[in-house]
UniProtKB/TrEMBL annotation:
It comes from the Bacteria. It comes from Stutzerimonas zhaodongensis. InterPro entries: FliE. Keywords: Bacterial flagellum, Cell projection, Cilium, Flagellum. This is Flagellar hook-basal body complex protein FliE. Signal peptide: none annotated. Belongs to the FliE family. Its main location: other.
Length: 106
């Protein structure tokens, strides 16, 4: 009898666990899931823009002779380039995901 009661308790526990999972929606509406998702992307864009302006200022300083840190200017330029490329890849992935969702049959 003990093993039957143990099985019943296990099943009851699983049922309660599944009931809790079913009560919480897996897919949340966009306003609940991440209220500041657009702000995160805008923040990333501003960060990349800032890096590009810093790289441009460093290159201008080297070109005008105000600075002799050519290596630092080139590193800043490469950092800005990599950041921009990464931002474009994220944008492309988001666009592809949105297109895939829009093509899904209902």
């Amino acid at each position: 009898m003990s093993s039957i009661m143990q099985v019943q308790q296990d099943l009851l526990g699983r049922m309660q666990q599944l009931q809790g999972v079913a009560a919480n929606p897996v897919i949340k509406p966009a306003d609940e899931a991440s209220p500041d998702a657009g702000g995160l992307f805008m923040s990333a864009m501003r960060s990349v823009d800032t890096q590009q302006h810093q790289a441009s200022a460093a290159m201008a300083a080297v070109d005008s002779g105000k600075s002799d840190d050519l290596v630092g200017a080139m590193i800043d330029s490469q950092k800005a380039s990599v950041s921009f490329s990464a931002l474009l890849q994220v944008r492309n992935k988001l666009t592809t995901a949105f297109d895939d969702v829009m093509r899904m049959p209902l």
